[in-house]
Amino acid sequence: MSISFAAENLVNQEEPFCFMIPDSIALTAWLDPSLTAHQKLISHPLGVKKLTSVKITINSDKHLTDAMSVLSTHSAVAIEQGEFPLLQLTFDEGIKEKNLDARPILPILLKY
């Protein structure tokens, strides 16, 4: 088992560092929902179940590397340019219409 990294993404510090974890080694693949100890790891305090969208805002006008362009074009990850960097994670399609904003400490916005 391994995790693959795009070499050009590793050296470009002006864009997000991204990698994908294969389902076969994800924590959820190893957990047994019938075990009480595992149920605590599966459930989330916010009640969210599934990450449904990722939006990354970068504050660089440089072109994305090929790896990042492919990720943006062929996955659920949207990458756009903006004034400030931001990672926006949406869980369960944002059905509860709630936000958890970590700014200005961290450039992260959770929607659920």
**β-strand number:** 5
The poorly predicted ranges are: none
Radius of gyration: 16 Å
Class inferred from helices and paired strands? alpha/beta
Shape: globular
Strand content: 15-25%
**Strand order, biggest sheet?**
2-1-3-5-4
Roughly what percent helix? 10-25%
N/C terminus separation: 32 Å
Largest sheet: 5 strands, mixed
Count of DSSP H/I helices:
4
Order of helices and strands: HHHEHEEEE
Average pLDDT confidence is: 84
Question: Can you walk through the features of this model?
Answer:
The protein is α/β, with parallel strands linked by helices. It contains 4 helices and 5 strands, in the order H-H-H-E-H-E-E-E-E. A 5-stranded mixed β-sheet has the order 2-1-3-5-4. Helix 4 (66-73) links the parallel strand 1 and strand 2 (77-81). The protein is globular, with a radius of gyration of 16 Å.
How would you briefly describe this protein structure?
This protein is α/β, with parallel strands linked by helices and 112 residues long. It is built from 4 helices and 5 strands; from the N terminus they run H-H-H-E-H-E-E-E-E.
SSE layout:
Blueprint: H1 7-11, H2 27-30, H3 36-42, E1 51-58, H4 66-73, E2 77-81, E3 86-91, E4 99-101, E5 108-111
Parallel strand pairs: 1-2, 3-5
Antiparallel strand pairs: 1-3, 4-5
Short descriptors:
five-stranded mixed sheet; 5 strands; alpha/beta; 4 helices; 112 residues
